[in-house]
Amino acid sequence: MTPGPLRVVVADDQALVRVGFCGIIAATPGFEIVGEAGNGEQAVAAALRARPDVMLMDVRMPVMDGIEATRQITRATDVRCLILTTFDLDEYVFAALRAGASGFLLKDTLPADLLNAIRVVAAGDALLSPSVTRRLIGAFTSASLAHPGLPLLARPGLAAAPPGLAAALAGPAAGAPSRDRAARGRLAHLLTERELEVLTMVARGLSNAEIATELTISPATAKTHVAHLLTKLDARDRIQLVIIAYQSGLCDQGGRPP
Questions:
Q1: pTM passes above 0.70
Q2: Over pLDDT 90: what percentage of the chain?
């Protein structure tokens, strides 16, 4: 994140929506609009040119959609992409998360929530609420039922496994219970007891501040634990940590230890 105001680019093919978001952001101290885009191709160009902290990205745009634009931006830069959507967790949002987006935001969100979302994503956190986490895992669970013989992250349409963790979680193609027990055991060798505890909380959708409150530690310590998890598990972001927690059998669909 650059020093000074948070630098934002807004990409949306609807001019009124784009102007509205830009107006709210530009009028708020601590924020700066450094570009606009009306399609995905323009969004990629704006990201490469301006190198903003955060890109607000609509998924449904002409020329190049927001999913492909997000994929290109996150591969080429450190820009964090926050997806704008009209519908709560539609199939486009799932695809955008797989493409590297840091979270999503409904277009009818309140101005205060918009600004907070930009701050959260700029700070390096994924914007994924507990309700979103549960529904995201619901999609993974559906894939699990459809493809019971495959590890979760290898099933069609889902994110690829973090490279350093794939071998650690890989096990014999035995029954699911024995495979889950083996995966949990391998995960326990990689992580400390506290890190396993924090990973479970991330899988429940808790923020660093909420983890700190629940464990009676400082937010800085909670952030450090999450950073260690990302490093040890070769995970790109909190979204992949959530997937890992369920892939390993560390949590059930409700976010509880099995």
A1: no
A2: 41
